[in-house]
Amino acid sequence: MNVNKPMYNQPNVNKTMYIELLGEIKKLRQDLNLVEFHKSRKNIHLGINCNGCGRNPLTGIRYKCLMCPNFNFCEICESNYNSSESNIVHDTKHFFVKIRNTDIYNFVCNNR
Ligand SMILES: [Zn+2]
Ligand SMILES: [Zn+2]
């Protein structure tokens, strides 16, 4: 194959092959879009709700209280929590762990 010529001018590449290749490229592009789609969904914490705003499931970065058995904040509530206007009832001396992916957290910490 002469790489300096456009593909459709190649003597050994006929139109059918060219169309097939275009189809392949289209399919690969769709697969890539799917990967991007799943990447954008990675910060959804199924089964976890935010104790500040009630968002369920919690999305974005999850902040889990290390001292309460079941207390979580979304990133918005976590940043508001440190401001004086917050009316969320929670012990301010508690620590939070920052979790991007609940699946990985559950896997590593075994639902501690
Ligand atoms: Zn929230
Ligand atoms: Zn707590």
Explain the layout of strands and helices.
Layout lengths: L14 H26 L3 E2 L12 E2 L2 E4 L6 E3 H7 L14 E4 L2 H8 L3
Antiparallel strand pairs: 1-2, 3-4, 3-5
The chain binds zinc ion (2 copies).
One zinc ion binds next to loops.
Number of helices: 3
The overall pLDDT, averaged over residues, is 83
Principal-axes shape call: rod-shaped
Number of domains: 2
Structural class: alpha+beta
Which range best describes the helical content: under 10%, 10-25%, 25-40%, 40-55%, 55-70% or over 70%? 25-40%
Q: What is the number of strand segments?
A: 5
As an assembly, this protein is single chain
Distance between the termini: 60 Å
Largest sheet: 3 strands, antiparallel
Percent strand: 5-15%
Distinct small molecules: zinc ion
Strand order in the largest sheet: 4-3-5
Quick structural gist:
With 112 residues, the protein is of the alpha+beta class. It folds into two domains: 1-40, no CATH class; 43-110. The chain is built from three helices and five strands, in the order αββββαβα.
Q: Can you walk me through this structure?
A:
The protein is rod-shaped and about 75 Å long. It contains three helices and five strands; from the N terminus they run H-E-E-E-E-H-E-H. It has helices at residues 15-40, 75-81, 102-109; strands at residues 44-45, 58-59, 62-65, 72-74, 96-99. It is of the alpha+beta class and 112 residues long. The strands form two sheets. Strands 4-3-5 form a three-stranded antiparallel sheet. A two-stranded antiparallel ribbon has the order 1-2. Strand 3 (62-65) and strand 4 (72-74) form a beta hairpin. The protein folds into two domains: 1-40, no CATH class; 43-110. The protein starts with 14 loop residues before the first helix and ends with a helix.
